[in-house]
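Follow-up to my post from last week.
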Amino acid sequence: MIYIILQLIIIIGLAPLMNGIIRKIKAISQKRKGASVFQMYYDISKLMRKDMVVSDTASWIYTAAPYVVFGSTVAAALLVPVCATEGWLNSAFMGGDALVFLYTLALGRFFLMLAGLDTGSTFGGMGSSREGLISSLLEPSMLIGLFTLGLASGSLSISRMMAESTAKAVPVLNPAYIVIFIVMIIVLLAETCRIPVDDPATHLELTMVHEAMILEYSGRQLALMELAASVKQLIIMTLIVNMFFPITFALPAGAAGVALAILLYAARVMLLSVLIGIVEVCTVKLRFFSVPNLAAIAFILALFGFVNYFVLGR
Amino acid sequence: MKFIYLAVPVVIVILLLFIKKRKFIYELGISASLLEMLITLSITADAVSGGQASFKMSLGIFYLDSFSIIVLDIITILGFLIHIFSVGYMERDCKSGKIDEKQVRLFFILLNAFIFTMILSVSVKNMGIMWVAIEATTLASVFLVGFYNKRESLEAAWKYIIICSVGIAMAFLGIVFLHLSSTGVLTHEHQFLNFTDLTVNAANLDSSMLKFAFMFILVGFGTKVGFAPLHTWLPAAHSQAPSPVSAMLSGVLLNSAMYGIIRTFTIVNINLGNSVFAGRLMIFFGIFSIAIAAIVILTQREYKSLLAYSSIEHMGIIALAVGIFTPASVFAGLMHIINHSFTKSMLFLSTGSILQKYHTAKISRIKGILKTMPVSGTVFILGLLAIAGTPPFGIFACEWNVLLSIFNEHHFVTGSIAAVLFAVIFAGIVHCLFSMFYGETPETIEPGEPNKSGAVVLIVLFVIVLAAGLYMPDFLFNLLSNASDVIMGEI
Amino acid sequence: MTTYMDIISLLILVSSFVLVANKKQTSYIKTFRIQSFLIALSMAAIGFRHFQQNGRIDAFILCALIIGLKVIYIPNLLNKTYDKVEHKVEKDFYLNIPILTLLACGIAVFVYFIVTGIGQFDNRDITMQVVNMVSVVLIGIFFMITRKKAIGQIVGFLVVENGIFGTAMFAAEGMPLIVDIGIFIDLLTGVLIMGLMVFRINDKFDSINTNKLKKLKG
Amino acid sequence: MNLSVTDHLFTLAIIMFFAGACFGLLFCKKHRAANTLSNLFCMAGSAMGTISVVFHLLKGGGPVTVLNSVPGIPNFSLQLKYDNLSAYFLLVLFILTFAVSLYSIGYISHYYGKRNVGIFNFLYCTFILSMMMVMLAGNLLTFFIAWELMSVVSYFLVVFEHERSENVKAGTVYIIMTHLGAALIMIAFMIMNVLTGETSIIGNGAFFTALPEAAKNACFLLLLVGFGTKAGIIPFHIWLPKAHPAASSNISALMSGFMIKTAIYGIVRFIICGFGGIKTWWGMTILILGIVAAVLGVAYALMEHNIKRLLAFHSIENIGIIFIGLGMGMIAYSKEYYPIAAVAIAAALFHTLNHALFKGGLFLGAGAIQYATHTRDIEQLGGLIKKMPVTAVFVLCFSLAISAIVPFNGFVSEWLTYQSIFAFIPKGSLCINMISIIAAAALAFAGALAAVCFVKLFGISFLGLPRSEHAGEAKEVPPTMLGGMGILAALCLVAGLFPKIILNLLDKVLIETAALKIYPNLSGGTVPVFSGLTVSGNKMSMIAILAVILALIAATVPAVRIIGGKADSRKYGTWDCGFVEINERMQYTATGFSKPIRIVFRILFRPSRTLAVKGEHPKYYPDKMEYKVGTVSVFEKYFYDVIIRGLHRFSQRVKLSVQTGSIHMYLSYILVTVLALMLYSRLF
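User reply:
Got it. Predicted complex:
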């Protein structure tokens, strides 16, 4: 129980920071000073306190969506242990079933897309439509990736996969793992609406996806939506760091070990954020209809990873 | 005395020559055909109740056994029902000025003559006389086919008489060879050409001559039955004849011709000891007829010729069943003869009502039958499903048994082809015909049944067809199994 | 006796060839008359033999019937019909005469090939006659196929009837009398009906060219 | 033969449906009475039926004979009996008919005075009876008769509104396809019957084990195509999207919810249980068909704007999912990994139930929309959530369920399917594994696309502003209709939260019919919150996940309140970019919504678009612009149309070259036949 509460606090607490880091990296690369890495915390707390403007057209779906999206995303977060310590893995909610994880995220996405359509605005519909395409194109790659990792550990539970990774010396050197790692990075970029798939910083209708869906939101509803998005980003990052870059050395027992693990975890996700920031800086946004090519590459790679696991890995 | 039924139609024909009033003609026609039906039914009842021995009755050249009784019953029962229908039909035609009083009388005279020739053909044991009777059926019905005296009907009648006469001539050649094959075996002149004696002595007949004979008889009577590619007269005649006559042709006439083939087939099979030679021919003609019918039905434009093709198909099925020549298959074939007769007559009679309402034979010009004529329409659409072999109607029960018997002989390819062709025919019927039933009735046509008494006949027939698919009474089973024994050679 | 029969049957066959080679409708009828007469002749011969053997006169009755019906009545009837319908000058047959006769010849050869294969016909004295008569039947049909006018078809049909009657006569020395009589009744009615229909066709179509009866397709 | 009370109850249920049919006909003239009475009888029958089959499943004790009649016709005995497998499918049927009949009481009221409601009710009851008969058929003949009856009756229901010619066409395509399928089934039955001498299909053990291998393979293919046609697997699916929209919605619900499942029943009954041995390639074939159907079905669904056509394509998708489960089960079975096979087949059967619940519900929802707005085109709808709030909630539930989203039932069966694939992969060869992993990916892809599709369906029709007057004037549907949908929605949730109820029943089914046990590999699952459903170590508990999500939401609301304090919300128009007031024509359309997918998968859809500018001088002064988007049904255009055109041409040619009308030609046929036969008799 304690781990679950810790998990909640860490995930929700750290999530906005990642956005801050990425933005900072981009600012630095553009020789700007940029906002503070904690800017998103300020934004959220400000938004929480603001009044809301709700469209006349909107129905209860619009009102409920932020809560459902946030609730389901955080619920999904409970399935992904942030630290691969033994106690933490064991207490992961329902063993962290990968399929439940995927379909719980899907619940959030479903309501997000509906919310986009609810106000009758063209932007919302456009965002939903695009989100639908991107997420469905990446779903198979993600699934094959998780299946392959699951096969390596003999279980579809995320915590078992992480335990397996921890047991491996340097898992990312395993061919199957390398391939799946690339797949997961692509999934991360796409699912969290980052360049080259989407540009979270722009409000130009030609390119927006996630921002378009939540365009009508304001106040605390917007805050919840933004927070949910960053939580989602963090949990996929968590998945990546714990699967491919686990802590392979033994941690001291007891509270100290846990604290150390948390610290190491924070460091790793921050590093990953820096990496993502660099990727964002180095690439340009793809034309929307080139995204399927990226997805196809991800799918082929995932399949390749699966075959690799069978031919070489077993 | 039992053969008195033969006299009834003759008497009627003679009486009708002197009766002028329409009403009397109708009454006489119906009551006489009822009488005829009752007589034959009583013969049947006697035969059924009297056990094995009494299935056969013989008097001079006349002869009845369970097989002939079945065909005879079909003729008289349908004769009666078609008489009733014809009364309403002719009355309406007469009122609408399509025909005159004289033609009504002519119609009933010819109808009764036609019935007489058919019952004669199944009541004799001499193949020669059977041939004469079957040839006479053509002659009696040719004016019925050309009844409306229009260009098309005349054309149909001409084709009918020419093709059938030539075909039947072939059968006579076959009968001559049959006779030749028995030289030295049958010594008494009164035995000559009797299929009873031929069957009894079948084993001693000359095989090669018999083959030759069978082949000619198959072509000859096959023309009348409508085996492809000898079927060509059939669609034309059926589509042009007045509907009661089409019903008679399809439901009854084809059976009497088939009767002739089956009788010879028995002799040949006993003689040859196996069914390879003749059976193969029958199976070939059966499958070929079904195939041609299936292909052609897909693009039919006239509903009556479509039904005619369906008759070709069903004759093919019967040939197939008989050609397999096992007790089960012959039984199924006999069942099919009965079911096909009733179902097809029902269908042709309903087309009569449709034709009288819509005045067109083209499928594309007809819409909304179900709304216009609830009874005929419903009977027709369900009848079509029945004829296409949909449960729970009688035809399905037969087709199931026919296919089962084919598969039982391990003719897997034949059986599969047949089954697929049935489905194709079903598709053709649905595709071509079902559009007639739906949609709105054209404004020029007022709703209602054109032939009230006819509608009753249709319902009666429908009940028979439905019941045949659900239940078979014991006496019928006995009769059929006895008849299949007869065909299998136990004469 | 056999030789005599063979010769007559051959003559009957030849008359069929002549029929196929005919061009005019009236000459069809003439040829048919001759052919029927030949059949009556052979019937008479058989009748004599029967009479000598067991004093039966069945065959004579038949012979008289043939002469009455086929030699006199039916040809006359056809001639009358022919006179009453309209005529246009047009070719009555498909292909041309030499080819038609060749094909007819081919049919006869084919029949010879087939019939001699039948066990019973190996070396019987009726073989030749049966071959000829079966050929007559088939040539009759062939004739019907090649002639356009209704009269030609009736004649063809009659030739077919001649052929089957001839087969019965030569091969089996006639069928039971009742059958033969039945055949005659049928034949007579048939020809009457056909004749009647020729009038009607002539009425409705202004021609007796059966090639025009092509409305009922498919 | 000792029949217990529940068995008698079953007979009574049948009588109830008969009574429903009869009352329909009796009250032909009084529409309201006919409809209400007949549907009440159906509901009573369904309730009794449900009770009796549930008891049968719980009690066990072998097959129960309902009727055994020998009508005198040879080889023609009718036998009705049920075992656990039939009982399970009957349970699905009864649940569905109960809800649909309740719904129909209200729904059919729009026929009053316009159509012959009595006949409709008669057909409706007969349809249910015929589907029951398929499940109850105790021998091959009865099965076939029931199968054909079902097709014919449903055909008449499809063409019931026969004034519209497209309905008639749809019906024609439907009955022709299904009859061709039936012909293949019949051939298979004949072979099975003849080579084994066996006709029974319900009883102990496999009946057709004695078939030779070649015959088994042939029968498998015949049955697969035959049943596949009914199930609507690609490429035999073309009737499905035509027939479902043509039928009225309660009928579509039954057709899609249950009738196409009879094919699944057939496959389980004959192929899995009947042959007493499964070959690996059979499983692979079914698996591949399932993959194709799942992905293409949902892809085509996305392109549809007619609600019922859209739902029909989703039926294809779901049949695909069921096939994936079955295929996986058969592969595992053939390789003798029985526990995995048990889970896979159970997953397929579970999905059968689930699909009946949510697809039935969705069709009822579609009917409700049509009832209220008189249109099925979602481009005409919008904003219905305010006009029909209750319907909206139910349709949302069904949409979530069909998209396999937690916590509804769709997810459970897909989860089980995934688990069986996952469990089998370490044991399979590379080839099987490749197909299996693609099957898993296909499931995920189909699920995601289904979610998109139902966002479209729900979002466009219920959210936003009304796009037409029809939608603007819609009213909530009568309570009976809501009741029908509500039952199904509730059951969707119940089956999702307590899957073990169903799995317990399935365990009995599989033990009896195929001697497979689910439970060695499966544990937990019902009420206890944290003991999840476990397959080979993987756990899942819908109650838990639902509880967590609800708890989080419940915690978020006060938390936000605490952090943010009191905040006002103000109603205002949707942001209009500073232009004129936004109106309904500016909303995103369904066509627009699915455009990205249409473009990406253009190879499947062959989209075409035309832009027509109208006006006197269209180039300079356009009055009006018309933009049309079309997609082509690839299978119809490149497969069926080609065949049909070929057949048609062939038929025409044969017809005109055989039946030329020339009497000379006809005579020459006789001559040629004679000559040929003479040759034949000379040679043989």
